[in-house]
Amino acid sequence: MTPPALTRRRALLGSAAALLGPWPSRIVFADDGSVVSATRPGTGPILLNGNENPYGPSPAARRAILDSMGAAPRYAEESIEVLRRQIALHEGVDPAQVLVGSGSGELLRMAGLLAARTLAGGELVAARPTYEELPEFAERLGLTVRWVDVDAEHRHDLDAFLRAITSRTSLVYVCNPNNPTGTTVATDQLAAFVRAVPGPVTVVVDEAYVDFTDVPGRSTAVGLLREAPNLVVLRTFSKLHGLAGLRVGYGIAPASLATRLGALSLVWPNSTGIAAATASLNDRGFLQATRTAIVDDRTRVQGALDRLGRPRADSKGNFVFFDTGRPVAEFQECMLAQGLRVGRRFAGYDTWSRVTIGVRDEVDRFLAALPGALKA
User: Fold this and answer.
1) What pLDDT is attached to residue 201?
2) Residues 6+ apart with CB under 8 A from 234
3) Bridge partners of 231?
4) Is 1 contained in some domain?
5) Is the backbone peptide bond immediately before 129 cis, with ω within 30 degrees of 0?
6) The CATH number of the domain where 99 resides is what?
7) For the segment 93-121, what is each residue's pLDDT rounded down to a tens digit?
8) How far apart are CA 122 and CA 120, in angstroms?
9) What's the burial of 330, exposed, middle or buried (CB within 10 Å: 0-12/13-18/19+)?
């Protein structure tokens, strides 16, 4: 049989089927957008090492991705403004306080640039371990990173942070929940800390994983913006929203600080990512269902580790950080032999591994392989 000609219409319909189909797992959606079930095709290693959301974008975001092809020849200026207003409404702030960037990574680098411009040869205070993009970029800009070890519970030691601040400090970075430990600091403790930081020092609170927090009294720092002219709160569409590859994030700050940061924008966000983020922001049913699925499986993983007697951090992200009892590289090799790719070594945690929460059958595979991969 002669194959049908590949017309433009056929190509677009093929794209639509791909976008609205499994991505990358076999996911069954209910009419309200909630996840009924999710399984993964058995090809290649299961990726539990990147803190990605395996459920992918919501149905609304997938449709928006397809529809955005018509806007591809145009710059995204107008759609960025639409998203900015939607975020402001969602967060209860003025649009002038909102910055949209190519992932929160760009916004972290903008904060580093602002710190370097404010005080040449200044200092950044950050936890060890933490998400490394800002500290590493700051060092390349000539800032000195003053590392502060996490406390015995693997949380930010905010009292030690305050002691580490000097007259040369221009930037403080708090990742909350922290990556890779997943731990959080209570909102009232964070508020007291922000009030105590000297006014000229910018405080960046990175909330990439805040949507997965399920403990009363540990929530967003956005409410602190009314009293903290030096505070920046960062969010991303890469985690709960499942849009890591489309690179969209946002920051919220007092309007004057937002203006200063905005002047240091590095790149122009892409129209497809903006369209997907706007649709996803309003697809609350799917987001809640995805969050519930991930938090439930995080609880399963932490419970299994407790039964096996393995030390762990109290994670509130979409991952779990725990002591394998052996060098991380050995644990990685054992897991990879079982078709599972897990996290790398972090400074000061030679035997600890971070594992991302996958879809249900991926978590089942991990839990089945875990006892044999741990050192007895």
Assistant:
1) 96
2) 104, 107, 108, 204, 205, 206, 207, 208, 249, 250, 251
3) 203
4) no
5) yes
6) 3.40.640.10
7) 999 999 999 999 999 999 999 999 988 88
8) 5
9) middle
